[in-house]
Write the structure tokens for this entry.
Amino acid sequence: MSAVSDAVVSTPHEDFDARAPESWGSAHADFGRLRATCPVAHTRSFDGFWVLTKYDDVSEAVRSPETFLTSVQNVVPRVAFTGRRPPLHLDPPEHTPYRSVLNRFFTQAKVEALRPHIRSSVVDLLRPMIDAGTVDFCEDFAHPLPAKVLARFFNLPVETAMEIREITRGYTAALNNASDEVVKKASLELYTVARRMLEERKANPLDPAEDPTTALLQASWQDEPLPEDMILGTVRQFIVVGMVAPIVFLGSVAVHLSKHPDVHAQLRAEPELVPAAVQEYLRLFTPYRGFARTANRDIIIRGRLIRKDEPIAVAFASANRDEEVFAEPDEFILDRPNIGRHLAFGAGPHRCAGAPLASEIFEITLEELVGRTTSIELCGEIRMSGWPEIGTLSVPVRLHSR
């Protein structure tokens, strides 16, 4: 990233179409083309934005919060119409007190305590799916699962978690249809749920070591309590952020297993390989196409001039298939030696706080899925997600029981 005088200055144009219809693998093929021919690309879609496709550029941007801000726009397309939601919508050090509280709930001990609940939730969802014949893996499994985990994590009634699930369903559909008004409506409904959660915890606080909402309400920063509107935004952020990614990720894993019965058989025979498989799947099927950053000054990346305040998508999904970092990047390689470098959970101060919990959910799901089935058969058309996620929204399958 160099001084402006070194730039090959050109007017931003249409290097790719972010609204183009997608099929299985097409988005990754397009990212591969951009990495090879136009690694810092621009599109006029969604009011125009840049996208960084190379691993080194993405990694540097997300690790440089002093230059690449998240507080201006956190995803492409812009969806934050209804308020600031820490910690994702704030830059360091403003985001730090919220992140500090949330980090306490993603320790190894906390995740292990949730493990029995996660497993029972996975099994309860899989059993009827195996008996039912043709099911939609996204709709029938990947959509309800995070809601069940969310209920235990936030100490919520299951009914509230299911309400969040239904609102999130509409929210996700609106994102994929680029319907800003519906996105706003769904977001405000999620704020209503978050506000109820806050009022309940204010009236009936729980142990702050066991309840994130109570912990936020009792937290302080520089001897001052956290502002209640920012606590509300934090709860609103967290009740949805973990709902969408599992849908597109787990659906993609199911598709891959259906196309690669050898992988299915190997993991069934050697379940100790499941954790490594999940990390390779996260690299291969990174659920977020890319979060957004905004440079606070004019900057040059690979000869392209990006002006101050122009939105930039940092494409984790592309970075994780960069040929210069990951050999045979489009292939599933179980013993990949540098898998720890993947950016599926981001990096830097905004690396996903919930990564340990997400990995646990995915590992238990994969272990139970391959352990309870002999094969997965695709039975219909795969429907793909648009920006900001990348992956599946609908995967009709038949799960063949052992």
In short: Residues 3-7 have pLDDT under 50 and may be disordered. The first strand starts at residue 40 and ends at 43. The radius of gyration is 21 Å.
